[in-house]
Amino acid sequence: MKKFKIFTGIVAPMDRPNVDTDAIIPKQFLKSIKRTGFGPNLFDEWRYLDHGEPGMDNSQRRLNPDFVLNQERYRGAQVLLARENFGCGSSREHAPWALEDYGFRVIIAPSFADIFFNNCFKNGLLPIVLEEGLVDSLFLEVETTPGYALNVDLDTQIIRKPDGSEISFDVDAFRKYCLLNGLDDIGMTLQHTDDIRAYEARRKQEAQWLFQ
Amino acid sequence: MTGKTLYDKLWDAHVVRDSGDGAALIYIDRHLVHEVTSPQAFEGLRLAGRQPWRVEANLATPDHNVPTTAAERHSGVEGIADPISRLQVQTLDKNCEEFGITEFNMNDIRQGIVHVIGPEEGATLPGMTVVCGDSHTSTHGAFGALAFGIGTSEVEHALATQCLVQKKSKSMRIRVEGRTPAGVTAKDIVLAIIGEIGTAGGTGYAIEFAGQAIRDLSIEGRMTLCNMAIEAGARAGMVAVDEKTIDYVKGRPYAPKADLWEQAVADWQTLHSDADAVFDREVVIEAAGISPQVTWGTSPEMVAAINGRVPDPANESDSVKSEGMKAALAYMGLEANTPITDILIDKAFIGSCTNSRIEDLRAAAAVARGRKVADNVRLALVVPGSGLVKQQAEEEGLDKVFIEAGFEWREPGCSMCLAMNADRLEPGERCASTSNRNFEGRQGQGGRTHLVSPAMAAAAAVAGHFVDVRSL
Ligand code: SF4
After folding, report:
1. CATH number, domain with residue A66
2. What integer pLDDT is reported at residue A90 of this predicted model?
3. Which atom of ligand 1 lies nearest, measured to the CA of B114?
4. B134 lines ligand 1 (CB under 6 A)
5. Using CB atoms within 10 A of its CB, is residue B355 exposed (0-12), middle (13-18) or buried (19+)?
6. How far apart are CA B469 and CA B463, in angstroms?
7. pLDDT tens digits, A18-55
8. How many CB atoms lie under 10 A from the CB of residue B345?
């Protein structure tokens, strides 16, 4: 998993509540045997005018000009500004895979669905919960300021706006530690390599047949 | 101090590290891999630049997607007609080769359903922790092992670390006391248990099956029983080790040999609950009261005895249950109060990790011998659980018995258990099936599944409707 420290990224506004994981990545793309390559199909039904299927050449498809991510000013966005209950619906881990693959690193919303929220951390995405009023003013500023970018510093838990003002945010200490160090669940377990090796050494004495 | 349950013993022996918050890092002795739930896990390893922690702890085979007709099968992986199935099988082959994992590929004689081949090879041993990205991993608990299914993220975790983070379950013992009547099999026992405790009855528990009727079961019967622990809501089911367990394991390719065998046996003989062990919940069922079972609805707990009738939702006082029954009857196309023996079938399926072992095939063949599949039955399929089961059955002439009776004799795989390949029910078709799930659409969209034992499935195939196998 990528380490997450501090970065500045363009903000894209997704101005609707209850964006579910089926909207984030529609079910026909779950047949894939990969966990990468979902970026081009992120928000597929909103983003394109035709119906998407796996294996299509997405560069040949007609884009929906009204969809926010298709607008020139949000090209290369890395921060997604969203409304409440973002990521609800099925537990598919493909949703954070698609967001990450597209290039997002941070999602800011007044609230997130539980499983999605956890899945984000496992995949190097930082979901930030901000109070409704703050989110409202961010939406306003983003929409009125082309090229609007935020600086997100995980270490100090501070978001810096273009005008220099700051917003602090909460993050679970354990999750923060994992992100800062680029540790996913496997990375966490691998911090106990010594314990695993000690267990194996002892078990080999007791039950050698398990190690043939 | 009270004694330990079998589950306590298995758990304690595998704790690598207790994190103190109820979760522990548990060591995994055996990881079985198949084509459907592993591709993203392997890709995750690759993206992170990781290697399997202990490559020889893994054993892989394709089973869910493989075609079961001889023609398609013998044209090799390239010849798999469905492109998504083909890609999954090819991907498994590639991943196993790249990471050095032993794989029994599609046309290897040792290929089969993961839950059949683990025990068959002796890769599943008493006292082990066994995991697989498949919920029916509970099957392996028949050997006094701690075995449970995992998701794709955990498949990657097990590959990379040989460990999983787990919370300990509560313990339940289900004692089936007394002797089972003739004609009643492990499948009937487990369906009767699920009928009794419900599909959520085991949620949060690890179940130990005990009592005379369980001790009397063969090892293959115990696998059938533990296979369906998950249908009772429990991630793990298990049976204590006895002489039958040890005899079954002896001499299998992966089983310990010589001195190690003696040491292993001494260890395995401790794998039972202590006499004074305390369980969080105990259930007692009298074996004498169990008849051959047939499910009538869309959940394994919707089950009746062969001499019973389809229940009437009007007699159910709980309105939620009653509505559920009505919906199930509508889906199944059944009227309340119909005698089970009046239900006609269109297809029969003998196979799946529940009932595709040699004893299952023998039991079905004993019924099929000298009889013919009824005219109203469009297809009666027999799908052995592995290449070796198929070979054994052919040596015993069982294939001829089936073919003469009008059954189709297929190549090993999951087949119509979940209809990922071409074997499936058409909308509205009714099937007597030896598999484990009768959920809506499980065997094909709109298909209607009735779960039964192998002998009962064969009996239904030759009669054209459900029938008490004991009356044939
Ligand atoms: S036979 Fe059925 S239940 Fe068993 S592993 Fe295959 S698909 Fe799953």
Report:
1. 3.20.19.10
2. 77
3. 5
4. yes
5. buried
6. 10
7. 999 989 998 888 888 888 999 999 999 999 999 998 88
8. 25
User: Kindly report the CA angle at B321 between B317 and B326, in degrees rounded to 5?
Assistant: 100
Residue B23 in contact with residue B165, Cβ under 8 Å?
yes
% of chain B surpassing 90 pLDDT: 93
Domain presence at residue A56: yes
Residue A91 reports pLDDT greater than 80? no
Taking the centre of ligand 1 as the mean of its atom positions, its distance from the CA of residue B414, in whole angstroms, is 5
Q: Domain range holding A70?
A: 6-181
Q: Does residue A1 form part of some domain?
A: no
Three-state SS for B304?
strand
CB contact under 8 Å between B256 and A199, yes or no, is no
Pocket test of ligand 1: the residue of B414, B434, B438, B439 to mutate, having most ligand atoms within 8 Å of its CB, is: B414
B23 band by pLDDT with thresholds 50, 70 and 90? confident
- Report the separation in Å between the CA atom of B135 and the middle of ligand 1, taken as the mean of its atom positions: 9
Q: Are residues A131 and A191 in the same domain?
A: no
Name B25's bridge partners: B17, B165
- For residues B59 and B131, what is the distance between their CA atoms, to the nearest angstrom? 11
Task: Say yes or no: A28 and A88 in one domain.
Answer: yes
pLDDT digits (tens, 9 = 90+) for B408-446: 999 999 999 988 777 899 999 999 999 999 999 899 889
CA distance linking residue B4 with residue B278, whole number of Å: 8
Q: Are residues A76 and A45 in the same domain?
A: yes
Q: Is the pLDDT of residue B69 over 90?
A: yes
- Do A40 and A84 fall into the same domain? yes
Q: Do A18 and A87 belong together in one domain?
A: yes
Nearest CA to ligand 1 atom 6: B414
Residues A125 and A212 in one domain: no
Token pair in block for residue B382: 């027999």
End-to-end CA distance of chain B: 54
To which H or E segment does residue A190 belong? helix A185-190
Indicate if A104 and A198 belong to the same structural domain: no
Q: Does a structural domain hold residue A51? A: yes
CB of B62 within 8 Å of a chain A CB? The answer is no
* Nearest CB to A186 within list B39, B125, B161: B161
Amino acid at B255: A
CA-proximal residue: ligand 1, atom 2 (nearest): B417
Closest CA to A36 of B401, B154, B47, B381: B47
Q: Of the given ranges (B20-24, B99-103, B412-416), which has the lowest mean pLDDT? A: B20-24
Interacting residues of A164 by C-beta distance below 8 A, sequence separation 6+: none
Residue B15 tokens, joined = 């704790």
On whether residue A22 sits in a domain, the answer given is yes
Residues A114 and A131 both lie in one domain: yes
Token pair 């013993």 is found at B9
- B94 or A185, greater pLDDT: B94
Number of structural domains, chain A? Answer: 2
Structure tokens at B318: 């709980």
Q: Read off the tokens for B198.
A: 């419900």
**Strands, sheet with B205-210, edge to edge from the N-terminal-most edge strand:** B236-238, B205-210, B170-177, B281-286
The verdict on a CB contact (< 8 Å) between B16 and A192 is yes
In angstroms, what separates the C-alpha of A180 from chain B's closest C-alpha? 16
